[in-house]
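Batch manifest, entry 17 of 40.
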Amino acid sequence: MLIPPVKIPFSEEDIERLAGKFRDVLKSGYIAMGPNCAAFETEFAAWLGVPHAVGAGSGTQALELICRARDFAGASVCVPAATFMATAFAPLAAGARIVLVDCDPETLQMDPDDLERKIRPDTRAVVLVHLGGFISARWERIRGLAADAGAMLLEDAAHAHGSEAGGARAGTLGDAAAFSFFATKVLTTGEGGMAVTADPELAGRMLSVRQHGQRRPGSNVHEGFGLNYRPSEIHALLGLDVLERSSAILESRRGAAAVYDRLLEGTPFRAVLPPPGQSPSYYKYIVFLPEGVPRKEFKDRLMREHGYGLAGEVYAVPLSRQPFWRDNPECLAHPLEELPGADRGCSGHVCLPIWPGIDPGDQARLVEAMLDVAGKVAARPRG
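Output type: structure tokens
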């Protein structure tokens, strides 16, 4: 494979620095949730510009913490169809039922018109997913619809570390937000997550849920339901380190995206571009294939003939097409139906490799290979 679809680069200097910090933690004999976790929560909150950040073992756990702390049991939660199943599984785990909302086929973002049609009196939250690190151009209308219904706007910001709209960062646009630090993410600790909010009461409840329902950790007094959602000191160390390098990481990703923008201009490929006034994190660089070019054949031939693999889509199969709902219809608050926007958008795009330090020459050769394959596929006689 000539370009890795995903690469998380660590320099020798990074490795030596981290090895020293890990050594100190191991020598301390304290590797559970401790001072490094507390420092990572404090520094992430300051970096984002929110008062409260609560670390978790994964992004899914962070999202579930918010849902459990707000007690969504028996309520409905609106989720866009173009997202990962974890976006729906987290509120389901907290006892909610899901309303699947269609998406704009041109951007893969939640369709506010469909949301307005489906939002219910029992809806407690609308989940705004910053897909691929892009913030919806219509996020303010979505926030308004949620507010009118008395529901919270909950950001799934797993892809959106550092994404901005009008100078405000993803994670500060709604009532609460969940971030993931999985191995492929813009800022990564291998595994881990963070729930953030400006609401001190919600933050306190999340801390309790994270610690088996203890309001005061270590008290052995359980005032509510909770499980173990705690992060580890090792992951927190990685988080503190990656925060120091966050500006360089984001600058490199945005620079690589600008290279793709130039290379694809005037081609039959259409890249998803940010709305005016926005700066995505570019967790993914999303490109729609030319009409009539089937994705599987395109990807197979790109690898077979040129040696280029592409990153995973966002997402290849919309939530509405997942077999889970057919087998578990009681988990839906709105009957399963056709969602044509999500179907079209999810089936028609690919994601190009993008990571800090990617070679612009490799990007140019990839685009040349894409044009070659698309031309061959489009020219093939149709039976």
